[in-house]
Specification:
CATH class of the largest domain in chain A: Alpha Beta
Distance between the termini of chain B: 18 Å
Strand order of the largest sheet of chain A: 2-10-9-8-7-3-4
Structural class of chain A: alpha/beta
Distance between the termini of chain A: 57 Å
Low-confidence stretches of chain B: none
Strand content of chain A: 5-15%
Oligomer: heterodimer
Strand content of chain B: 5-15%
Radius of gyration of chain B: 25 Å
Mean pLDDT of chain B: 97
Radius of gyration of chain A: 25 Å
Mean pLDDT of chain A: 97
CATH class of the largest domain in chain B: Alpha Beta
Number of domains of chain A: 3
Shape of chain B: globular
CATH topology of the largest domain in chain A: Aspartate Aminotransferase, domain 2
CATH superfamily of the largest domain in chain B: Type I PLP-dependent aspartate aminotransferase-like (Major domain)
CATH topology of the largest domain in chain B: Aspartate Aminotransferase, domain 2
Number of helices of chain B: 14
C-alpha cells in the first residue's frame, strides 16, 4: 500500500503507550460502538506510485486532445506562457493555506495585492477582490452585492451565457431573490424591453449583461448602462478579460461592478476548472464586496506590509450576517493570472486581443464565402455564430481531422471562437472542410 | 520589498505573441482609450520577483503547519504530476462526451470512492470549495422540503462552536440560523437542541468531531432527534480527516455532507485555493443534485429536479484528479491508517502540552485539540496571539487562533498524520520555551516575531484607511 505516514508501526505503538493507550482500538474506545465502521472499506488496496501513475495516466490517455480548437463559449484556448506554471508551482505558493499569519505570508499577500491592482487596471475599475470560484459564481455574487431591503429583483440579459444564468438562478433560489430575464432581439439585449421592465419595477436591484455577449456580439454597453442607471438600478458587466485589450472598459462605461471568467489569463482549459472568478467594483461598494481583500499597511517598524483586510464583511467574523460565505477562493489561479498579466504587459494585452479579433474576423469572412453566413449582425470580438445546414455533420468531419469545431447552439447554428493559437493555416483547413462537407 | 509595478520600466517586456498572419481587424465600435498599467518587465526580473515573494511565504513544505481545522497535510508530488497530464489539462469542458471518457470515468471513480468513505449514495463535484459545498448541501435540503410542499421549514440549527461558514451558508440558502449552546463537555447540549427543534426546523449542521476536536458521544441521539422533528442532518466534512474508515457520516444519521478535497484528500491549498468541496447525499436527495454528469460516456444528463448549477462547468476538475490519485495510493487500508495516525499525533501533542497550556476539554481528542490560554492571559497579559507570533520565530506556522468562539484565548492545533514524532517534539519544545519566556519575561513574547520579513502589522490602519491597489503616479 502507499502511505504518507512517516512513523513506523513500532514508533506509533511507542507513542500510543507513552500517552497511556494500549493500541489504536484503545485510542478510539470513546467512539460509540454503534457509530463505528464494521470491517474494512470496500475500496481497492493501496498502490505504489508507479501503479497509480499507470492507472491515472491511462485515464488521461482515453481523452482526446484536439490539435486545433475553435470552441469557446466560456472556456478559451489561449497560450499559457512557460513562466506561469513554473512560477506558480513553487511549493511555497502551492502548499500554503490562506495567509492568516501575515508576517510569514507577505509573499502571498503581496502577490494578491498585485493581482487586485492588475484586475482593477484591466477593467478600469476602482478596486478588485482576491478572487472568487469562477466567472459564473462571481456573477451570482455580484448580483447579491446590490440587493437591499428596497431593491431585490435581479435582471439578467437573455444574451448572457445560459450557464452563467443558471448559477445566478441557483444562488437566487437560496437567497429567495427573483431573477428576471430581459429578452434578446437579434442576438442582443432588447433595450426597449429593459427600459420597460426596469421602469415598471421600483424594486429592481441590478442588471447584468455580458460583454461581448454569449454570441460574441459587443453590445451597446453605454446605452444599457444609461438605461439601468436612469431607472435606479446598478449596472454589472460580465467581461472577457482578453477583450479588455481593445474594448472600451467597464470603468469607461460607468459600470458599478465588473466580473468575469479569469481562465483566459494563463489557465488551461482543464475540463472546466479550477478557473478564476474575478470581481472589480466602484469604490462606493467596497463594503459589499464578497470574499477576501488584501490591503496595504505598515508593520511596527513602519515598513510596508500587506494584510487580509475589511474582514468585518466576512463569514468568520460576521457569521450569518456576512456578505458571502466564501472562505477558500482561487488564490493560486489568481497568482497565475498575475504572472500572466506581468508576462504579457500592456503591449501584449493589446497584441493578444488584436490577434484574437483579427483571426475571428478572417474566419468569419472565409466561412461566409464558403456559405456559412453569420447568424447576427453586430460587431464581434473573437466569437461569432454562423448558420449551418447540418452542424453535426460538419463538426464530425472536423473532429475526424483532430479539430474541435465551434459549439452547436440550440438554433442549429455554430458558435465559433478564435484565439491567438489558431493559425491562418488552421482556419483555412476548417474552411476546406466546410467545402468538402457541403 | 518593491511591488512588481515599481520594477516596471516602460518599453521592457517579453515576446510571447507572433506577428498576425491575417489582416488586422478590430471591431468597429468605440475602443478602449485608457492603457492598463500592467508591468513591463523581463522574464528574468519577473522570475526573481516571484522567487523573492515565494521566500516570503510559508507552505507545508517549508515547515510544520498545525493550523487547526485546515488539515495541512503533505501534498504528494504524484498528485501534481497527474493533474498536469496533457490529457486532462487540455480538455475543453464542452468537448463531445465520447472524447472525454477518461475524465468522466475518473469523476465516477472518485464519486464511488467518496460514497464508500462517507456512506452516501451520490456526490456532486459542482462546489469549488468547502463553503460552496455547504451552500450546495443546504440548497438540497431546501429543495427537498419545498418539493414535499413544506415551505415552513426555514431554520437551520447550528452549534455555537461551528465554523463561521455554517451560519453564513445558511443565510445564503435563505435560512434563519438558530444557534444552540455547547454543554460543559464541548458537545451539543441535548436539551438546548430539543428546545429549538420544531416544525420550522429544516436541518442541523454539525461537525463531528466538532471544532474542539471531540467526537460527540450522543451523535446517534442527536441525528435521531432531528429526524423525528422532520429535519435533515448536514455533516460539515471539514474534520473528516479524523474519521475516515472509522466512522461513516451516513451511518450515524447524516443525510448530506460536504468534503474538502484540499484538506482531507491532500490536494494543496494554493495560498487560499483552489479547493474542491464535493457534496454527498443520500438516495432521496439525488433528484435535486446540481450540474450535468456523464455516466455512460455518451451524454450528459441532469437530475430531474436539479437545483441548477453551482459553477459554470463541472467543478474544479484538476483538484478531483489529485484527490483520486491520493485515494488510489492509500486504498482500503491506507485511508483509515491516515485518520488513525492523525488522531494519534493530535493526542500525542495534547498530552505533551496540557500540563502548562490548559486544554479546553481535557479528554481523548480526535485529529485536533484546543488550548485555552485564558488563565495565562489573566496572569501575564500574554495572549494566544502573542504565543502564535512567538512560534513564527521558530519557523512553525501557528495554530488557528481565537477559534472556536466558545473557547477564550483559543489555540487550535492539528498536526495531521504526515508529521513525524521529531517534528512534533521540536514544536512541543518551542511551545514550552515560549511558556517559560512568558512567565519570566512576558514583554519579550509580546514583542514577537523578530525574525520574520515584516514585524506585526497594523491591521486597524489597513481597515480604516483601505489601500486595496497600488497607486500609480
Amino acid at each position: 500500500m502507499g502511505t504518507f505516514i512517516p512513523n513506523t508501526k513500532e514508533e506509533q505503538l511507542k507513542m500510543l503507550n507513552e500517552i497511556g493507550y494500549k493500541d489504536f482500538d484503545d485510542l478510539f474506545k470513546h467512539i460509540p460502538a454503534e457509530a463505528k465502521v464494521k470491517g474494512k472499506l470496500n475500496l481497492p488496496e493501496g498502490k505504489s506510485e508507479i501503479e497509480v501513475d499507470r492507472i491515472v495516466s491511462g485515464l488521461a490517455a482515453k481523452n482526446t486532445v484536439f490539435r486545433s480548437i475553435f470552441r469557446g463559449a466560456g472556456a478559451y484556448n489561449h497560450y499559457v506562457p512557460s513562466a506561469v506554471d513554473a512560477i506558480a508551482n513553487k511549493e511555497e505558493f502551492l502548499t500554503a493555506y490562506t495567509p492568516y499569519q501575515a508576517e510569514i505570508s507577505q509573499g502571498i499577500l503581496q502577490s494578491i495585492f498585485e493581482y487586485q491592482t492588475m484586475i482593477a487596471e484591466l477593467t478600469d475599475m476602482d478596486i478588485a477582490n482576491a478572487s472568487l470560484y469562477d466567472g459564473a459564481s462571481a456573477a451570482a455574487e455580484a448580483c447579491a452585492m446590490f440587493k437591499d431591503r428596497k431593491h431585490s429583483t435581479i435582471y439578467v440579459s437573455e444574451a448572457v451565457d445560459e450557464r452563467i444564468r443558471t448559477v445566478i438562478n441557483t444562488y437566487s433560489f437560496g437567497r429567495n431573490t427573483e431573477v428576471k430575464i430581459v429578452p434578446k432581439k437579434n442576438g442582443v439585449t432588447d433595450k426597449a424591453e429593459l427600459e420597460k421592465m426596469l421602469a415598471e419595477d421600483p424594486a429592481s436591484a441590478c442588471f447584468l449583461m455580458q460583454y461581448p455577449n454569449y454570441y460574441g456580439i459587443i453590445e451597446d454597453a453605454d446605452e444599457l448602462c444609461k438605461i439601468t442607471h436612469d431607472n435606479d438600478a446598478k449596472f454589472i458587466m460580465y467581461v472577457n478579460p482578453i477583450s479588455m485589450g481593445v474594448l472600451k472598459t467597464p470603468g469607461e462605461i460607468g459600470a458599478d461592478a465588473c466580473i468575469g471568467e479569469g481562465q483566459p489569463l494563463g489557465l488551461g482549459l482543464e475540463f472546466g476548472g479550477p478557473y478564476l472568478g474575478f470581481l472589480a467594483a466602484n469604490q462606493k461598494f467596497m463594503r459589499q464586496i464578497p470574499g477576501r481583500l488584501i490591503g496595504e499597511t505598515v508593520d511596527s517598524k513602519g515598513d510596508r506590509g500587506f494584510v487580509l483586510t475589511l474582514q468585518a464583511r466576512e463569514q468568520h467574523i460576521r457569521r450569518e450576517k456576512a456578505s458571502s460565505n466564501i472562505c477558500s477562493n482561487e488564490a493560486l489561479c489568481a497568482l497565475k493570472a498575475g504572472i500572466y498579466m506581468s508576462t504579457i504587459g500592456p503591449k501584449g494585452l493589446k497584441q493578444v486581443a488584436t490577434l484574437c479579433s483579427s483571426k475571428a474576423h478572417y474566419m468569419a469572412d472565409e466561412l461566409a464565402k464558403a456559405g456559412l453566413e453569420r447568424s447576427h449582425d453586430g460587431e464581434f470580438f473573437n466569437e461569432f455564430a454562423t448558420k449551418c445546414a447540418d452542424a453535426d455533420k460538419l463538426l464530425a468531419a472536423l473532429e475526424a481531422k483532430g479539430i474541435l469545431g465551434g459549439l452547436k447552439l440550440e438554433c442549429g447554428c455554430i458558435l465559433w471562437c478564435c484565439t491567438e493559437l489558431n493559425t491562418r493555416e488552421d482556419i483555412d483547413e476548417v474552411i476546406a472542410t466546410v467545402k468538402e462537407v457541403f | 520589498m518593491k511591488l512588481i509595478f515599481e520594477k516596471s520600466i516602460s518599453g521592457r517586456g517579453q515576446d510571447i505573441f507572433p506577428a498576425c498572419d491575417v489582416p488586422e481587424v478590430l471591431p468597429k465600435v468605440e475602443l478602449r482609450k485608457t492603457t492598463a498599467h500592467l508591468p513591463e518587465i523581463s522574464e528574468n526580473e519577473m522570475g526573481r520577483h516571484y522567487t523573492a515573494l515565494a521566500k516570503r511565504a510559508h507552505g507545508v513544505n517549508d515547515g510544520f503547519y498545525p493550523l487547526g481545522s485546515c488539515t495541512m497535510k503533505h501534498n504528494p508530488r504524484i498528485n501534481e504530476k497527474m493533474a498536469s497530464l496533457p490529457g486532462f489539462v487540455n480538455l475543453h469542458p464542452l468537448q463531445p462526451a465520447h472524447t472525454v471518457k477518461g475524465a468522466n470515468e475518473l469523476i465516477s471513480g472518485l464519486e464511488a470512492a467518496l460514497c464508500e468513505i462517507t456512506g452516501m449514495d451520490a456526490v456532486t463535484f459542482q462546489p469549488a470549495a468547502g463553503a460552496h459545498g455547504e451552500f450546495t448541501g443546504l440548497l438540497l435540503i431546501k429543495a427537498y422540503h419545498q418539493d414535499r410542499g413544506d415551505f415552513e421549514r426555514n431554520e437551520i440549527i447550528v452549534p455555537d462552536s461551528a465554523h463561521g461558514t455554517n451560519p453564513a451558508s445558511a443565510t445564503m440558502a435563505g435560512f434563519k440560523t438558530i444557534e444552540i449552546k455547547s454543554n460543559e463537555n464541548g458537545m451539543v447540549d441535548l436539551e438546548s437542541l430539543k428546545e429549538k427543534l420544531g416544525p420550522h426546523t429544516a436541518g442541523l449542521m454539525l461537525t463531528n468531531p466538532n471544532t474542539v476536536g471531540l467526537f460527540d458521544e450522543n451523535i446517534m441521539e442527536i441525528t435521531r432527534l432531528v429526524h423525528e422533528a422532520g429535519g435533515l442532518c448536514y455533516y460539515d466534512g471539514a474534520n473528516l480527516n479524523a474519521v475516515m474508515g472509522i466512522v461513516r457520516p451516513a451511518d450515524i444519521g447524516f443525510d448530506v455532507i460536504h468534503m474538502n478535497l484540499h484538506k482531507t484528500f491532500s490536494t494543496p491549498h494554493g495560498g487560499g485555493g483552489p479547493g474542491s468541496g464535493p457534496c454527498g447525499c443520500k438516495e432521496f436527495l439525488k433528484p435535486f443534485i446540481p450540474g450535468l454528469t456523464c455516466k455512460d460516456g455518451k451524454e450528459y444528463t441532469r437530475a430531474e429536479k436539479s437545483i441548477g448549477n453551482m459553477t459554470g462547468f463541472y467543478g474544479n476538475f484538476l483538484v478531483m484528479v489529485k484527490a483520486y490519485t491520493y485515494i488510489l495510493t492509500l486504498g482500503a487500508e491506507g485511508i483509515p491508517a491516515a485518520s488513525s495516525n492523525a488522531v494519534l499525533n493530535a493526542n500525542y501533542m495534547q498530552e505533551k502540552l496540557k500540563d502548562i497550556y490548559p486544554v479546553a476539554f481535557d479528554t481523548t481528542c480526535m485529529h485536533e485539540f484546543v488550548l485555552c490560554l485564558q488563565d495565562i492571559y489573566k496572569d501575564t497579559h500574554v495572549s494566544a496571539l502573542d504565543v502564535a507570533k512567538a512560534l513564527l520565530d521558530y519557523g512553525i506556522h501557528p495554530p488557528t487562533m481565537y477559534f472556536p468562539l466558545i473557547v477564550h484565548e483559543a489555540l487550535m492545533i492539528e498536526p495531521t498524520e504526515t508529521e513525524t514524532k521529531e517534528t512534533m517534539d521540536e514544536a512541543i519544545t518551542a511551545f514550552r520555551e515560549i511558556y517559560d519566556l512568558l512567565r519570566k519575561e512576558p514583554e519579550a513574547v509580546q514583542a514577537c516575531p523578530q525574525t520574520t520579513p515584516v514585524l506585526r502589522l497594523d491591521e486597524v490602519k489597513a481597515a480604516r484607511e483601505p489601500v486595496l491597489k497600488y497607486k500609480f503616479d
